[in-house]
Design goal:
The structure is a single chain. The protein is built from 17 helices and 25 strands. The protein is an alpha+beta fold. Helix 10 (237-243) packs parallel to helix 12 (278-295). The longest helix is centred in the middle third of the chain and has 18 residues, at 278-295. The model is unreliable at 1-49, 57-68 and 378-386 (pLDDT under 50).
Length: 538
């Protein structure tokens, strides 16, 4: 399906990093910044070290078409010897996987449409990822259908571009609507967007990344996916646990790691591995997990994952937590298509590139003893536009929204104004005692819009969180209509007479094939572009 990879690195062994060079307990930003993988242009990421979500971007789609890959003979010798002992008879098959193409994937955003709907709508040639019900492979070099990162459906948030194995962790965490969910190492957002979709707008998604720049990319991806019930922060895990003890029903720790599972796809990681290996990451992983356990409620679930093969970084971390926390137990994960058991822990799963069409991953699910259910809030009252004490223009706009979700009518949360901006806060946010002042938030809830000199301007985030039928004034263009690209570029869009039935000055929700893209304002037979400048088609 994909192009073959080429030689790009010289043969050699990993240089041992200095033990103790990272402050594991402090989890300082400098240390974690160095442990991140390359993130995408569209996600506004930056070059760094190693992260499980490598391959989580439209940038990766371009790189895997054109950039050389890694051949097995270029792997560090100490790593090869370790894998020979780990895999036994399967070792040769693992080496042969380096001669095979890598795979690109997209994960359908079920907040907006089902996998079945996507199959009917998709303009691309895709094949299902066997172990992910809403995951698909696509051919990035297929010139006929174009690249998914350059299609209006990408800008409508209908899918997220993600390496197929990286889809696994969020898929395995047993999240249900109404849960409080924490993604503690969340950027650039592949896991969080899936977790948010599974919440169906109910409960709370708390997405955190210690790097402020990566947290901004994370926020963009969550807003593009139309996830309304979010809190996005940029904090060290120990700061979160200080304010949120035993708060979450489900926690995902997709930990910084040595990245051995990504050598085939990302040969640059071998250089990082030679400088800093598993022994440098184990203290960080232990410290993050310790803080995660503190934030897990009795009866809650914690999923730990990495993109490495190293036993100390995988089963070793799980054993460390089980030995120190007797109220934590290991749950059996489903062994789906091509999965391997954990080493000495059959409840865990390992993914190898010679067994599946994807890269290397590890996942383990832990449960804390105690009550199986958290009492749900009873005051989940939604607000209608008429009940809000807001300026007239904002009141009139919000009153136009036809929201009926989750058994409620109106905005699903408390509306608050801060510095001229209106937010709809998830009901569970009210239970974060003191967190609002102690945690560095980039976003709390859904940004509805801004108040400017008595005027109200709806936000890009609100447009993406709406469905077409929830707003009365919509301009819906087919994806092939050239006006869609003009709109995404920030240009004024011309209307035909029969398309301009709304009053002049109306805020119009611009859609493609029924899926919102953003806002415009009607001016005669034109739509004055209000698409968010930072998201424009480049």
């Amino acid at each position: 399906m994909k192009n073959r990879m080429k030689d790009s690195r010289k043969k050699g062994s990993r240089k041992k990093g200095k033990k103790g060079s990272l402050e594991a307990k402090g989890l300082k930003e400098k240390g974690l910044k160095e442990s991140r993988s390359e993130e995408s242009r569209l996600a506004q990421g930056s070059l760094g070290g190693v992260r499980p979500e490598t391959g989580d971007s439209a940038e990766t789609e371009i790189r895997t078409e054109n950039a050389p890959g890694c051949r097995a003979e270029l792997l560090p010798e100490d790593f090869r010897e370790k894998m020979r002992k780990l895999l036994g008879k399967e070792y040769e098959a693992y080496l042969e996987s380096f001669e095979k193409p890598c795979h690109n994937g997209l994960r359908v955003n079920t907040m907006k449409l089902s996998a079945e709907d996507w199959n009917r709508l998709s303009p691309f040639q895709t094949e299902p990822v066997p172990w992910i019900e809403n995951g698909f492979y696509y051919n990035a070099s297929d010139e006929g259908s174009g690249r998914p990162s350059r299609h209006p459906y990408y800008y409508a948030g209908l899918y997220y571009l993600q390496e197929p194995s990286a889809m696994t962790p969020a898929n395995l965490l047993p999240v249900k609507p109404g849960d409080r969910v924490l993604d503690i190492c969340a950027a650039p957002g592949g896991k969080s967007t899936e977790l948010g979709a599974r919440l169906r707008g109910e409960g709370l998604l708390f997405s955190n990344d210690i790097s402020n720049s990566r947290a901004k990319a994370l926020l963009k991806n969550l807003e593009m996916a139309g996830i309304p019930n979010i809190c996005v922060s940029s904090e060290a895990p120990e700061k979160l646990s200080e304010f949120l003890p035993e708060f979450f029903d489900c926690i995902l720790v997709d930990a910084p790691c040595s990245g051995e599972g990504m050598f085939r796809r990302e040969p640059d990681m071998i250089k990082s591995y030679r400088e800093r290996g598993p022994e440098d990451y184990v203290p960080i992983q232990r410290a993050i997990m310790e803080e995660a356990v503190k934030m897990l409620r009795p009866g809650g679930y914690l999923l730990y994952s990495t993109c490495t093969f190293d036993r100390e970084e995988n089963e070793g971390i799980i054993r460390y937590i089980l030995d120190r926390h007797l109220d934590m137990s290991l749950c059996s994960l489903p062994h789906r298509f091509g999965f391997a058991e954990g080493i000495g822990m059959p409840e865990c799963v390992r993914l190898f590139p010679h067994r599946i069409e994807g890269e290397g991953h590890f996942a383990a699910l832990l449960r804390r003893a105690g009550s199986g259910e958290r009492p749900r809030r009873k005051d989940r009252t939604a607000q209608s536009g008429a009940s809000l004490k807001l300026p007239d223009e904002a009141l009139a706009f919000l009153s136009c929204l036809n929201l009926r979700r989750g058994g409620t009518e109106g905005l699903p949360g408390q509306v608050e104004e801060k510095n001229g901006k209106l937010y709809c806060l998830p009901p569970d946010f009210q239970d974060m005692k003191g967190a609002g002042k102690g945690i560095r938030f980039l976003r709390t809830g859904l940004l509805l819009g801004e108040l400017k000199r008595g005027r109200f301007e709806p936000s890009q985030a609100l447009a993406m969180a709406l469905r077409k039928e929830e707003y009365p004034f919509t301009a819906d263009f087919q994806a092939e209509d050239e006006r869609v690209i003009r709109y995404l570029k920030g240009e004024t869009v011309a209307l035909r007479e029969e398309e301009a039935s709304w009053p002049d000055g109306s805020w119009v929700l611009v859609c493609t094939d029924g899926f919102p893209l953003g806002w415009a304002k009607k001016a005669g037979l034109n739509l004055k572009n209000k698409y968010y400048p930072g998201w424009r088609w480049q």
